[in-house]
Write a structure and sequence with these properties.
Layout (H helix, E strand, L loop, with lengths): L10 E6 L3 E5 L12 E5 L1 H11 L5 E4 L1 E3 L2 H12 L8 E3 L12 E5 L8 E5 L15 H8 L1 E7 H4 L5 H14 L3 E5 L4 H4 L4 H13 L4 E5 H7 L16 H14 L5 E11 L2 E10 L3 E4 L3 E5 L6 H14 L4 H15 L11 H8 L9
Parallel strand pairs: 1-4, 1-9, 2-7, 5-6, 9-10, 10-11, 11-12
Antiparallel strand pairs: 2-3, 7-8, 12-13, 13-14, 13-15
Helix pairs in contact: 1-10, 3-5, 10-11, 11-12
Length: about 375
Amino acid sequence: MKLRDRSRCIFDEISLGEVMLRLDPGEMRIRTSREFKVWEGGGEYNVARGLRKCFGLKTAIVSAFVDNEVGRLLEDLIMQGGVDTSLLKWESFDGIGRTARNGLNFTERGFGVRGALGVSDRGLTAVSQLRAGDIDWERIFGDLGVRWFHTGGIFAALSETTPDVIEEAMLAAKKHGTIISYDLNFRPSLWKGIGGKEKAQLVNGRLAKYVDVMIGNEEDFVEALGFKVSGVDSNYQDLDDSDFARMVQEVVQAYPNFEVVATTLRGVNSASNNDWSAIAWSQQTGLISSIERYGLEILDRVGGGDSFASGLIYGLLDGRSLEDALELGAAHGALAMTTPGDTSMVTKLEVERLAHGGNARVQR
């Protein structure tokens, strides 16, 4: 891919999306807990944070918060992760959140036969009310300069206006030569009240024509873009390389603008034990696969796909081969699921070591 000159860009990457306050009951259930640990998280934001905190790139988040103590807590958490907050849009607080509010996300990690559970409380959030024209994309992509722009299907699902914001951003990014990645990140609960998967396919299909690097898992490509995989059950447990290869052929025929297509493959043995690998395609490489990690032990699966995306993006921004970038993504996703919270707590050295055959032996 033709990347913008780093010396001419303030940011290596920016993400557009919602950042919520995650309330984590730890080993307890949401319905029975009496205390919660607080994190920040959001599908698009997690990628920017991983690129900054783990891989050392200069990143920023474009989002909107209500200017109250919860919004400032979110800002403080983002700042601790090193992501630039200068592009945040602040809305006035009306006293109770009648017109705009900050999003909350209650998340159980799950264990064994009990799957992870997320309960979002994000109606009327400030970022969901963004409209085309609210963000000065010409200044961001033209004056400041950005090498990579990332967003996805979660932000697209928040309201009738957020797809317009994404499209406006993508047009400006294209104009200035910024690479665009998009994570389909299909969430049935977000689309449920606005048209379901049919609406998801309409919106994602409209935006996909601008995308250079399309990311998702097997369910995303089927449910959010409408591509079918024959012989695969509704739980997507039996998808293999050949199934994905057939699907990719259909996808790139429909969207010849895709330079890279990548997906994680997850076999759910239990909430705390998954089989984990990743697959990617480009015109130059064809279909390639990462190391397969069978029986990967999971502490907190939330954010694993976002960490895969940030590792993949880092590799491509760093000029690595797609094979190397894929291994970095798969390793980063695997490591991120060994710690609590949405975001990665690992180092670049740990990712590089695991990506190239390292193991869990003690380091001292």
